[in-house]
Amino acid sequence: MHNNAPRHFLSLLDFTPGELHDLIRRASELKRMHYAGEAHTPLRNRTLGMIFEKASTRTRVSFEAGMTQLGGHALFLSPGDTQLGRGEPIEDSARVLSRMVDCVMIRTFEQAKVERFAAHSRVPVINALTDLFHPCQLIADMQTYFEHRGDIRGRTVAWIGDGNNMCHSYINAARQFDFQLNIACPEGFDPQTPVLEPARDRCTLTRDPMQAATGADLVVTDVWASMGQEEEQARRMRAFAGYQVNDALMERANPEALFMHCLPAHRGEEVSASVIDRPDSVVWDEAENRMHAQKALLEMLLG
Ligand code: CP
Ligand code: NVA
């Protein structure tokens, strides 16, 4: 029998702060078990449908390997090979797929599309990146911070660059994990007001990246042109000149500051090679933790 009211993960605000903390604790525990070679297969005979309308390396592989490790199976569904790409309504796709699989992960453009899918799904739906949010990345980022430095509560995070989906999820994380977020964006690339406004007590917005980085415990950036913005690349390169995370910027942060980037990165654009490849850059742990964090998420949603 199907669950009448499945739990979804479309934004970090769908879970309580307590649930998010439990999730990252569990992620670290699953990571320890994985390293110890302890088999943990609670999702035997369960299937995750993975709809990708944008490219992916980390998200696809972390969900697929994670499902295998949990004893289940993951199904890669691209619009080019399914009726989704030929115009079958998202609501109908949700009704059909959710009668066959146990969970659905979606990477697409509009946030409204994952919400419409979820509204018609019998099974949990996970946002695996939209133009608005990337919540799965944030649970991995928070896990990574906790593993390296302990609780992020009361710490200062600097977001340098585009007010994009990752920036929006950092704004939500500032609310849920209770940290200060200093955002530095060029004019015209601010985060959206409906996302920022409810977090005004936790966030500052400046045009000065050096000011945002001052005293930061964590410095984060992302590409200047996200998926779907390829034709804006040249204009964005000009607008974001001066927003590179480099050694001079990291000098302003606390001596113990970490650097994160969701990847893929462009060395020499949003981050210098010297920063991404230095020891206090934790981008590889951050990428690996996608798998552990999403295993904890799948276990929680399907448990
Ligand atoms: N960070 C991230 O989501 O990477 P992919 O685009 O490779 O999935
Ligand atoms: N902001 C980037 C993140 C990629 C993981 C994008 O949306 O393309």
From TrEMBL:
Gene: argF
GO CC term, one of those recorded: cytoplasm
TM regions (residue ranges): none
Protein name: Ornithine carbamoyltransferase
Gene Ontology biological process terms in this record: citrulline biosynthetic process; L-arginine biosynthetic process via ornithine
The Aspartate/ornithine carbamoyltransferase Asp/Orn-binding domain, residue ranges: 154-300
Pfam families cross-referenced by the UniProt entry: OTCace, OTCace_N
HAMAP family the UniProt entry points to: OTCase
Localization, UniProt: Cytoplasm
Keyword Transferase recorded: yes
Keyword Endoplasmic reticulum listed: no
Binding of L-ornithine, residues: N165, D222, S226, M227
Domain Aspartate/ornithine carbamoyltransferase carbamoyl-P binding: 7-145
Pathway entry: Amino-acid biosynthesis; L-arginine biosynthesis; L-arginine from L-ornithine and carbamoyl phosphate: step 1/3
UniProt xrefs under InterPro entries: Asp/Orn_carbamoyltranf_P-bd, Asp/Orn_carbamoylTrfase, Asp/Orn_carbamoylTrfase_sf, Asp_carbamoyltransf_Asp/Orn-bd, Orn/put_carbamltrans, OTCase_ArgI
Molecular function (Gene Ontology), one example: ornithine carbamoyltransferase activity
Domain of life of the native organism: Bacteria
